[in-house]
TrEMBL record:
It holds the Pfam family BCA_ABC_TP_C. GO terms for cellular component: plasma membrane. The keyword Cell membrane does not apply. InterPro entries: AAA+_ATPase, ABC_AA/LPS_Transport, ABC_transporter-like_ATP-bd, ABC_transptr_urea_ATP-bd_UrtD, BCA_ABC_TP_C, P-loop_NTPase. Keywords: ATP-binding, Nucleotide-binding, Transport. This is ABC transporter ATP-binding protein. SMART domains: AAA (SM00382). GO terms for molecular function: ATP binding; ATP hydrolysis activity. Residues 4-240 form the ABC transporter domain. NCBIfam families: urea_trans_UrtD.
Length: 254
């Protein structure tokens, strides 16, 4: 099974090139972290894959070309994403949220009715994301981390094969981060998962592979150890830190 294959991807905004000729291959079973300084083009790359911005080049998933397709058609091709802020229906229960995500073709009444028989894919998703006990709680009462897990569950019931997650652990507690990392490892065993992340500790603990983006290009790629040892990466990150330190000193001296 072929996963995500990106070739010569380019996205421009009014003459500014945010993604500048990116090649990227992510196989099913991988857990790829996409890192890079602010403005590197990470979110824009995911926007291009999901059809939110126009792009040139080629994005194939499972061998099918996605560029040029509508957002809805891309979603129907088994591609799903989460955003930094979870987008769940707060007034509905966890189960109803999952039911609606799973429920193409069912009436709203069928989906909102309290049912004893939870459909098998929904029960499996509840189990996978660890929310079985909270199935009947309104989503609005969930903790921040639990909402992110619900959103991932909503992708699982749609049988999304490629998950693109934008900073899934931002704002999470240490325990929530750990649980999220383990969740991502479980779901990536048979799906293709790409995670945009700024949290380097989280990346070191859970990434199977890493791509570093800088100024719209892939700067480095490999295992966590390979990427960390790459002088180009050290320069970008240390250069960044050095610049911030200099700025801090300048502010303090002013
Ligand atoms: N709609 C847009 N119009 C104009 N410029 C944009 C647009 N979207 C993004 N950009 C620019 O493209 C560049 C890449 O942005 P992008 O959000 O993809 O970076 P990022 O790596 O995700 O950064 P961050 O880690 O801060 O989220 C930035 O310079 C940004 O200002």
């Amino acid at each position: 099974m072929s996963g995500l294959e990106i070739r010569r991807l380019r996205v421009s905004f009014d003459g500014f090139t945010a993604v500048d000729g990116v090649d990227l291959d992510v196989r099913p079973g991988d857990l790829r972290f996409l890192i890079g300084p602010n403005g590197a083009g990470k979110t824009t790359l995911v926007d291009a894959v999901t059809g939110l911005v126009r792009a040139e080049g080629s994005v194939r998933f499972g061998g099918e070309e996605l560029l040029g397709r509508s957002v809805h058609r891309i979603a129907r091709s088994g591609i799903g994403r989460t955003f930094q802020t979870a987008t769940v229906f707060e007034e509905l229960t966890v189960l109803q949220n999952l039911d609606i995500a799973a429920g193409a073709g069912r009436s709203l009444w069928t989906m909102l009715r309290r049912r004893k028989d939870v459909p098998e894919p929904v029960a499996r998703a509840l189990e996978t994301v660890g929310l079985t006990e909270l199935a009947d709680s309104p989503a609005g009462t969930l903790a921040h981390g639990q909402k992110q897990w619900l959103e991932i569950g909503m992708l699982l019931v749609q049988d999304v094969r490629l998950l693109l997650l934008d900073e899934p652990v931002a704002g999470m507690s240490h325990d929530e981060r750990q649980a999220t990392g383990e969740l991502l490892q479980r779901i990536s065993a048979e799906r293709t998962v790409v995670v945009i992340e700024h949290d380097m500790d989280f990346m070191r603990s859970f990434a199977r592979s890493v791509s570093v983006l800088h100024a719209g290009k892939v700067l480095s790629e490999g295992t966590v150890a390979e990427v960390q040892a790459d002088p180009k990466v050290q320069e970008v990150y240390l250069g960044h830190a050095a610049a911030e330190t200099t700025a801090d000193v300048a502010v303090q001296e002013a």
